Amino acid sequence: MIRKVLVGVSAAAALLALSAGSAQAQTKLKIGTPAAPESPWGQVFKTWKKAVEAKTNNAVSFDFFFNSTQGTESTMVDKMKAGQLDGAALTSVGLGKIDKRLLAIQVPGAVRSWKAVDAVRAAIGPEYDKFLTDKKFVPIAYADVGQAHFLSKGFAVHQPDDLKGKSPWVYSEDPILKTVYAKIGGVNPFPAELMSVLPNIDNGKINCLSIGALAAEMLQWNSKFDNAVDQVNAILVGGLVMSTDSLDKLPGDQKAAVLDTGKSMVTAATGLKNRIRNEDAAAWNRFKSRTGVTIYAPTADDIAKWEVVFKASRDALKAGTFDPGLVSKIESVGAANK
What we know:
The chain has helices spanning about 1-25, 40-55, 75-80, 90-100, 115-135, 175-185, 195-200, 215-220, 245-250, 250-265, 270-290, 300-320, 325-335, and strands spanning about 25-30, 60-65, 85-90, 135-150, 170, 190, 210, 225-230, 235-245, 295. By secondary structure, the protein is of the alpha/beta class. Strands 1, 2, 3, 4, 7, 8, 9 and 10 form an 8-stranded mixed sheet that branches. Strands 5-6 form a two-stranded parallel ribbon. α6 (about 175-185) links the parallel β5 (about 170) and β6.
């Protein structure tokens, strides 16, 4: 009898040890993002986590750090390089911190429709992948943020000169909008990181910006503005990347599971691509229907004046910031897919 009890205890102990070993063996990959957990991006990321856990039998999972809790996009890139984060969901500005050429897709006026985004990504995708892999990053998925419109507070933006004397927000490390405002002249752009924008709208230091409606809604900026332009001035995009070193530590089947489910995260019928584009359009319609908001439809003359500024800005960016051949390709493909 005593022997049976001892055998039973030994078996139970072995099971507990095995269970503990399995729990300890789970690899947790740390992913930073500016998105909120309840946002469309956050919800899709949670679905991706479940898919990876299912495909790896819980051997791999994710710890998502939402709401920029791992710092600015620049900080998150530095943390990936230092091994403190395994991956991050970034806007183009954040990707540009890895390699500035990754920001070129947002040169002003070149890509202004989802059709153009898809065509440009197809044309430059292999180059973008190489820019990342050369810097020891793996592109998990390229993703969208939204169609950017000018939003303003207390005044309307019809033509470029309407921004003179105003203080539009720019990302601290974004050379594109800084170049646009320099070409207009007399504009006082206010550089700030994402989480610093709202208080600076409230205190009046930022009185206009170019942003997608869904992002503005998620960040609670939309209610702060009473004027907007019913014209897309840019498509805001980004991507989710991971450190090559982090992925290479996984066994081959687990690494494949992360990569395969990551691609599906975008391309599935309910994935990021369709969801963000549809929800961004719905958010823009909600903004336009708000009481007290004036929506301006630009005239042909307005559009022509903006095109002059955008063209001058692209030429300046070609001359000193981006590879001219890459920008020319983006311009050409974008123009053919308006």
